[in-house]
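For concreteness, we quote verbatim a single protein encoded this way:
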Amino acid sequence: MNNKTERASNLPKKEEAEHRINNKIRVPKVRLVGDNIEEPGIYSTADALKMADEMDLDLVEISPNAEPPVCKIIDYQKFIYQQKRKQKEIKSKAVKVVVKEIRFGPQTDDHDYEFKLRHAEKFIAEGAKVKAYVFFKGRSILFKEQGEILLLRFANDLEEVARVDQLPRLEGKRMILMLAPKPKKA
């Protein structure tokens, strides 16, 4: 068993299924592309395998759905490593949205309101969205107008730093208001 086949056989099963390599490529002709090819073009699979063997690299099927399939002569382990790094980089650049919740009762007094308002300002300054809600227990659902007034006052007090994503809406026993940070002006 040559060195190249040993490298390919040491791969986990998931990666083997992802790309066909070396002797797993069963089509008669392939299109070779890449930097280490003198003349990119269509070659028989046997010739492409021979070229890869001479360079002590792997023949990797990059695009199996093309006609003929597109292959590259590369070090497969290095190729997989670079793909994983790209995926990790894309994942790290993705924007993560954090939603912080602030709970009120329908008869929340002014001190509690101010305390929660300061927390909401801090959350918005950190770039998080704020989900403020009034929770109605038992018969307090009769005071849903008070809850709506409280949430509208909350949105009004935060209008300098936040924009309203969703106006107060009753969902079961909760009346919910969504706020998001305002975009920073350059």
Observations:
- Helices lie at 3-9, 13-18, 45-54, 76-93, 110-125, 144-157.
- The chain has a mean pLDDT of 81.
